[in-house]
Amino acid sequence: MYSKIIGTGGYLPNKILTNKDLESIVDTTDDWIVERTGIKQRHISEPSETTSSMATKASIEAIKNAKINNSDIDLIIVATTTPDMVFPSTACIVQNNLNIKAPAFDVQAACTGFIYAMSIADNFIKTGSCKNILIIGAEKYSNLLDWSDRSTCVLFGDGAGALILSANSEEGIISTHIHADGQYNNLLDVKDDHIRMKGNEVFKVAVNTLSKLVDETLEKNNMKKNDIDWLVPHQANLRIIKAAAKKLSMSLDQVVVTVDDHANTSAASIPLAFDQAVRDGRIKNDQVVLLEAFGSGFTWGSVLLRY
Ligand code: UT7
Question: Which atom belonging to ligand 1 lies closest to the Cα atom of 22?
């Protein structure tokens, strides 16, 4: 039995904060942000919007696109580092919003959270425990930002993406790979409710680690670089994305890039990018897609799948 994606959904807040807007908040420039990160703007939620409300909106769309009913879902997993509250989990709040009677829990692996959630869901399906799993990546990073710290506040945005993973006899997820190394925990963390990052050091480890992850994923499946049709990377920095594409000898035309519009939405970035490329017809049935992410912890991981 395979796990196959049968529907996707995404939600981005309407309010847009451009780099130009940020120039009046901190000592930065549009040129610096674009050149160093590829980010042009980010979406920022209203005070009344929560991680769970954004997650719910993305889920409603994913369930509709999957052409199933809420009652068909037998597990809900939310990947987030910005839960509405410590408990109940954001997944339980979404479960109640959608009136679904199924187990629900959150996964916290920072920017790699969605990859961890997909890996967990894939195993629930392979063991025959579940048939339709709602997996969500949702974040309200605007709450975690120190709006006087130019080295972090320009990098992140809010949003939510969701997909339905379903038991299927056709090939879907080919393999999942998840990793962690806690020795780097002080390079990227949240202290006193704000993100602190030694960006330059994180950057170097991220590029090296993602390069090894590509090798690991291809070797495990006896696949070659040109077997992959699409790369859907975590959207932290266009320079990191370009390095991963180069490693795969891929042109940027085969890479789904949303960092210019969304900035870094942490656990939401991969499902949002995936949903966008499915909806606009870039990712087609039967194509091979590599998802990969790197984040605080450090955590990193990949999912190789046939869509
Ligand atoms: O998603 C989870 C994982 N996170 C990542 O993968 C992020 C990895 N890191 C990065 O993406 C990059 O390191 C950053 C985008 C965060 C920073 O880019 P960088 O090229 O590594 O710049 P830097 O930190 O080395 O800073 C270079 C200069 C510094 O000035 P000096 O010391 O050279 O005078 C900074 O103070 O840029 C300065 N700077 C800024 N200037 C204008 C830092 N932030 C800004 C800013 N506007 N917003």
Answer: 48
